[in-house]
Sequence to fold (388 residues):
Amino acid sequence: MKKILVTCALVVSVPAAHAQSSITLYGIIDEGFEAISNVPVAGSKSGGRLFRLDANNGLNGSRWGLKGSEDLGGGLKAVFTLENGFELNTGNLAQGGDEFGRQAFVGLSSDRYGTVTLGRQYDPIIDYVGIYEFGDSNLGSDHAAHPGDLDNFNFTRRQNNSVKYQSPDYGGLRFESLYSFGGVPGSLATNQAYSFGAHFARGPLGMSVAYSHVNNPAASLLGSNPTDTATSNGLTASPIYSGYASARTYQVVAAGGSYAFGHVVVGATYSNIRYSNIATLSESSADFNDAEVSLQYLIAPDWSVGAAYNFLKGNAVTQTIGGAKYNQLSAGVNHKLSKRTDVYISGAWQTASGDDSTGHAAVANIADLSPSSNRHQAVARIGIRHQF
Fold:
């Protein structure tokens, strides 16, 4: 899980009976050196190696945020979160230049009835199932996400204009639902999105299921709102699914879980992704099935290692479009220097076969990288992460 350790807080007390307010400043700075085997080269069909510093595709994207609450009495609180993403190497804003592009919401939280929030938020796919993906662990970088982050396990897309409900904890069982308004006059359904999920955790066992549905996802392939674009969602169009951009609906059915055997954690995820009524393909539908298994081992309190295998298969929409297969191996090593600072090494290797959504021979496309010029792609990263 992409965890945030809050170690620096500003607490403001309100001089009223039974009322307190608090504001917490938090953040993560994650920087690393990357070596990539193949990315496009202008004027060349063969591609080339790339070496770079990168601050947005490590164990976490670099960010800072403010989180606050006010005690309203009777177990009720007003809550808010404003979270900004930034590019460390240039100082630019991330998420397409949005000031609080990662999260921005306000709402009410009740110990008895749950929490309702409004704004730009994560959906249950991310909150409940994404936590079991290796790319969301403290060992796999964002490049370990499923190819193209097709199922949105890895935080690529948020939902604007959304209302979200999170239930209290019922003995380890929790529920969550989200509805995003399309914002189109005269049409409630256009651009709307909705999702729901359930999560159970007790002792060494954790497991979740979730469903997400988006209408008219063409603008950002998965973004769903008129103000969203491929850039503001952090999405680079991938040939894995870019040929299905004219789909009228997009949906994900997902499940995941993990079990801890002492210092060993075994995890697995599954997702079915469907683009329905693709206008440019005679209203056909395209399906993908993705499965991942992972293993993490705590060698010592300050050393951990892990690896994962992921398989993605798309169905054949026509004789020449779709049917590609993607195999991916990911691994990572993490060493804690302190409670707030760690160093790590991570890597991913992917192969592709068959034909992709554009009707061409499928090429490898590791998440958050430009597509390879051939069927293979690899990336290695050495990084440092500081949390405050």
Notes: The two ends are 17 Å apart (CA to CA). The chain is about 0% helix and 55% strand. Confidence is low (pLDDT under 50) at residues 1-18, 220-236.
